[in-house]
Design brief:
The complex is a heterodimer.
Chain A lengths: L1 H12 L3 H21 L3 H27 L13 H31 L13
Helix pairs in contact in A: 2-3, 3-4
Chain B lengths: L5 H21 L3 H21 L3 H25 L3 H5 L7 H21 L16 H10 L7 H22 L4
Helix pairs in contact in B: 1-2, 2-3
Classes of the chains: A mainly alpha, B mainly alpha.
Chain lengths: 124, 173
């Protein structure tokens, strides 16, 4: 009993890569809930940004883990592929936000609403 | 080299991010959601610093909190938000949506508890290096950089996004 308590305290206080991955999973879930349940399209786009940030967090955490691996396995100080991917994801997020908000302005000009469930022209 | 008070700062930043995310998906006012998202993004930049990624942390602050979120706030200013605040905030499939998200959460929990041995227990040792120089070597160096072509494609993507945004948002072309 005491040993398991000590072990759980050790898990709590010893921040490993798994902690960052669990945090990324929690943010991802929050973003998914926002995308699936909200009506306001601006908040849906912000939830997509949350999802992209969760992915970025996982990439950077695993990149940090990979830096501690031995160099013969491809690790070492220069193994920053996860961070480079995170930069590409941020670029994609910028492009997506620009195009999405442009579509949103055009849509608001035509329909005078920002609710996603009122856009049902293609629905039969 | 062990940094000071790492668990404390990790839990502080993690709780800030989670609370910011919850506020983003629950607030009525879109401006409040945007401000909560900015808080979460700044906390995430702190987490990047804890992971020894100062370049990504700087890009996060400048591009996300400074660029993308200002774009969001401008668009919220352009569209009228008074009417949408009085309406229903959640769509009619919200129960199904939460059920789907709960299923995904169960999948995450089972993966992270069953596959715990795949992930390292302790904090990985940090290898001394120059982060910005190493990132630049991967991105730009003609000999060691393996992402040069992807980088050029990313610039093309941004050009397409600029043209697309202007075409979409302009009244008459």
């Amino acid at each position: 009993m005491v040993r398991s308590q000590k072990l759980s305290m050790d898990v709590m206080l010893h921040i490993s890569t798994l902690h960052y991955l669990v945090l990324g999973a929690a943010l991802f879930l929050l973003g998914v809930i926002g995308v699936l349940t909200r009506r306001n399209v601006v908040i849906v786009l912000m939830s997509i940004e949350l999802i992209l940030n969760a992915v970025n967090l996982n990439l950077v955490a695993l990149s940090h883990y990979w830096q501690g691996m031995p160099a013969r396995l491809g690790g070492g100080a220069g193994a920053l592929h996860g961070q480079v991917f995170a930069i590409f994801v941020i670029t994609d997020a910028a492009a997506e936000a620009a195009v999405g908000l442009g579509i949103l302005i055009a849509f608001f000009r035509n329909k005078e609403t920002v609710n996603v469930d009122e856009v049902n022209l293609l629905k039969w | 080299m062990t940094p000071v008070a790492t668990p404390f700062f990790f839990y502080l930043l993690a709780v800030t991010m989670i609370i910011g995310g919850i506020l983003v998906i629950t607030r009525k006012n879109a401006v409040h959601s945007a401000l909560a998202l900015i808080t979460a993004l700044l906390a995430q930049a702190g987490i990047y610093l804890m992971l020894y990624a100062p370049f990504v942390a700087g890009v996060q602050i400048i591009l996300y909190a400074g660029g993308i979120m200002v774009l969001f706030l401008f668009v919220i200013m352009l569209i009228s938000i008074e009417r949408t605040q009085k309406e229903r905030q959640f769509n009619s499939q919200w129960l199904v949506g939460i059920a789907a998200a709960a299923a995904l959460g169960g999948l995450f929990i089972s993966v992270y508890t069953k596959g715990k041995s795949l992930f390292p227990e302790g904090r990985p040792s940090y290898v001394e290096g120059q982060n910005v120089q190493d990132v630049a070597a991967l991105l730009y160096d003609p000999h060691t950089g393996m992402y040069m072509f992807s980088f050029e494609i990313a610039s093309l993507l941004l050009l397409v996004a600029i043209i697309g945004a202007v075409v979409m948002a302009k009244k008459r072309i």
